[in-house]
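Predict fold of Damage-control phosphatase ARMT1-like metal-binding domain-containing protein; 189 aa.
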Amino acid sequence: MESSGEMVALPVLVESNYRACTIPYRFPSDNPKKPTPTELSWINLFANSIPSFRKRAESDDTVPDAHSRAEKFALRYAEILEDLKKDPESHGGPPDCILLCQLREQILREVGFKDIFKKVKDEENAKAISLFEEVVRHNDAIEDEVERVQNLIRGIFAGNIFDLGSAQLAELFAKDGMSFQASCQNLVP
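Predicted 3D structure, encoded as tokens:
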């Protein structure tokens, strides 16, 4: 579909105070030196994911001495998360999901890992490409426009399930594997 209008910047992205986080982690009335319950929940969630990330890092056969580097990552990231519990402004805080992800990736890179999920991403991309033609054919066969759009949206959500940033999802994936069709069928309405 072509547009005759000129391209314009998305206004939300042009604003200088825009942040991609939509969860209110803290309010102006919160003590800046004390983590909020929401911040603590997120810090704990990321702390609970350390063993999964460590295990994934240990299995990265592109990194020499991956086992000891993964150990360094786990210890250093746990230290940072504990620091944030004591002082939410440490390490560039206050903490939110974006900062916690950035810190995790920074530590992984500092100890020598480029992308601990590269192997699984490559495998999943290959599987996705092999499914593409059939998924498009199936969607094109849906005559009702509303149903076709709903099917596309289900596919987007199902594809997004493979975000291995979730420790629980990563463990499930490693243990049982997942399929695109099963993901589409198991989506909550």
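The longest helix spans residues 118-140.
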